[in-house]
Design goal:
- With 557 residues, this protein is α/β, with parallel strands linked by helices.
- The chain folds into 3 domains: 202 residues, Alpha-D-Glucose-1,6-Bisphosphate, Chain A, domain 3; 210 residues, Alpha-D-Glucose-1,6-Bisphosphate, Chain A, domain 3; 108 residues, Alpha-D-phosphohexomutase, C-terminal domain (TATA-Binding Protein, 2-Layer Sandwich), CATH 3.30.310.50.
- It is built from 18 helices and 23 strands.
- Helix 4 runs parallel beside helix 5 and helix 12 crosses helix 15.
- It is globular.
- It starts with a helix and ends with a helix.
Length: 557
């Protein structure tokens, strides 16, 4: 046993030394050397850093900022960029690589290194002029007819993380994938090219590329404003937070150009700051994340409060709600169906799409209004490719606060245009003496209350998630809420997802693609009797709470 441990430690030490010899970053080499110097006490940490290379998942590369192959660092980014430009060349893609970045630690450095690798390989590189929202990068890929785009961001992950999203241009992405995130087989091809990169010292680095001017962001804002009608009501007071991210300047410019009053911005969270000092977790869905936003909304008597996540591709909406005792955040499903309903009533015809973990209400609305509908696997890279091509995508959303209200503008989730469209809807309702919650009640009266919730467990050992998925497959519940399970669908091998249905409820269980979490998405549908929406909501809430307990017991985490 002792010999085995020694062999393992010797192997780790040798792998670390090879990495040190190839790491182009002096700070990274110093960091890793410090871990080596603490052996054998640091063996678990060293093993984690070398547990395996980061791979392209739901959102590209994403991981902790640290030296070693299982982290985001200059060496990993250099290798990723070299593999990407090699793959683009092999696929015959022409045109520049356009690169954006957020305000996280390392983002600008990683973006600049990506540009140097691209130009070193003979491909023009264009850098966005400053930290900007992810949807601006997605827009730029189409606007500049780029071969591909890279966005350096970890979205709403903890401050210790960073990430690397890849978007394809029209040449390789096709009609539905132009300006969208990569999907198979492109991700596998890029990954193989990354693994084939030789010593990093032999990767040629070129000049820094072209730094674009502010006219790109101006063009994005101009087209974003065209997403909403030009003549609707604009009387609306909005409170806003970018959560220390990069959304504030672009969102306030868009609101101003559209004719709305400039939103009041939470002052402590207005400037980009990759340490996210006022929130424990920079995700608007997390408890406490929007407390300062609500306080601002109350103090300024706002009609509506909006939060973007740090890279501004998601949009959270918080509304006054007397029944909730103050203000409450609308669920992503609620905002999704409000936006879809608004577009439908504006006469926008085409394909409406969401994911298998989102509410069934959008499908019911489309069926009643004779509009095409589709469900996809989780992730906007699938949503924007929804349907069979017979109808153009006009709207897509996912329950995790992601909305695409104008696929021909940005073929990805876009928290800026979503916020504008929510404001257009809210201002129109206000002019009629109504609110967003009033419209939700009207939809519930027509289609029944579709109450959704989530049971999520964060783990430190990913094997716990695999074990829980194995348990639910081996001992699938036969009843939920006292009613028989009428359908138990396992999406393996295409996706690690189990879907359970009864005549009134649905449960979708899957590992998160971006965080070490197991998630169960819960939905109960309660019909509205005699127009009493409140009573139906209470029945649905009670049922979902019970369903949550049953699912937790079945997963046994």
């Amino acid at each position: 046993m002792a010999a085995d441990l020694t062999d393992t430690l010797d192997d780790l030490r040798e792998r670390a030394r090879r990495w040190l010899d190839d790491d182009p970053d002096p700070a990274g080499r110093e960091e890793l050397q410090a871990v080596l110097d603490r052996l054998p006490e640091s063996a678990p940490e060293l093993a984690d850093r070398f547990a395996g290379p980061l791979t392209f998942g739901t959102a590209g590369l994403r991981g902790p900022l640290r030296a070693g192959p299982n982290g985001m660092n200059l060496a990993v980014v250099t290798q990723a960029a070299a593999g990407l430009v090699t793959w683009l060349a092999a696929e015959g893609a022409t045109g520049p690589l356009v690169i954006g970045y957020d305000a996280r630690r390392g983002s600008k450095e990683f973006a600049e290194r990506t540009a140097e690798v691209a130009t070193g390989a003979g491909r023009p590189a264009m850098l966005l002029p400053r930290p900007l929202p992810t949807p601006v990068l997605a827009y730029a890929v189409r606007h500049l007819d780029a071969a591909a785009g890279v966005m350096v961001t970890a979205s709403h992950n903890p401050p210790e993380d960073n990430g690397y999203k890849v978007y394809l241009g029209a040449q390789l992405g096709g009609a539905t994938g132009a300006g969208a995130q990569i999907v198979p087989p492109a991700d596998r091809g890029i990954e193989a090219a990354i693994r084939a990169v030789g010593p990093l010292a032999e990767v040629p680095l070129g000049p820094p590329g072209q730094v674009l001017g502010d006219d790109l962001a101006v063009a994005y804002v101009r087209q974003a404003v065209e997403v909403i009608g030009p003549d609707g009501p604009r009387s609306l007071k909005v409170a806003y937070t970018p959560l220390h991210g990069v959304g504030a300047a672009v969102l306030t410019a868009a609101f101003s150009r559209a004719g709305f009053g400039v939103p009041g911005v939470v002052p402590e969270q207005a400037e980009p700051d990759g340490t996210f000092p006022t929130v424990s977790f920079p995700n608007p869905e997390e408890p406490g994340a929007v407390d300062r936003l609500v306080a601002l909304a109350v103090s300024t008597r706002a009609d509506l409060a909006i939060a973007n996540d740090p890279d501004a591709d998601r949009c959270a909406v918080v509304v006054p709600d007397a029944a909730a005792g103050g203000w409450r955040m609308l669920r992503g499903d609620e905002v999704g169906v409000l936006l879809a309903d608004h577009l439908m009533r504006r006469g926008v015809r085409g394909l409406y799409a969401t994911t298998i973990v989102s509410s069934a209400l959008l499908g019911a609305m489309c069926a009643a209004r004779d509009l095409p509908y589709d469900e996809t696997l989780t992730g906007f890279k699938w949503i924007v490719r929804a349907g069979d091509g017979s109808a153009p995508l006009v709207f897509g959303y996912e329950e995790a606060l992601g909305y695409c209200v104008a696929p021909e503008h940005v073929r990805d989730k876009d928290g800026i245009t979503a916020a504008l469209t929510v404001a257009e809807l809210a201002a129109g309702l206000k002019a009629e003496g109504r609110t967003l919650t009033d419209r939700l009640d009207e939809l519930a009266a027509e289609f029944g209350v579709h109450h959704t919730d989530q049971y999520a467990v964060r783990v430190t050992d990913l094997r716990l998630i695999a074990d829980a998925m194995a348990r639910i497959r081996a001992a699938t519940p036969t009843t939920l809420l006292g009613r028989p399970v009428t359908s138990a669908q396992d999406l393996l091998p295409d996706a690690d997802v189990v879907i359970l249905r009864t005549d009134t409820a649905r449960v979708v269980i899957r590992p998160s693609g971006t965080e070490p979490k197991l998630k169960a998405y819960l939905e109960v549908v309660a019909p509205v009797a005699d127009g009493d929406v409140a009573a139906a909501r209470e029945r649905a809430r009670t049922a979902v709470a019970t369903l949550r307990t049953e699912v937790a017991a079945a997963l046994a985490l």
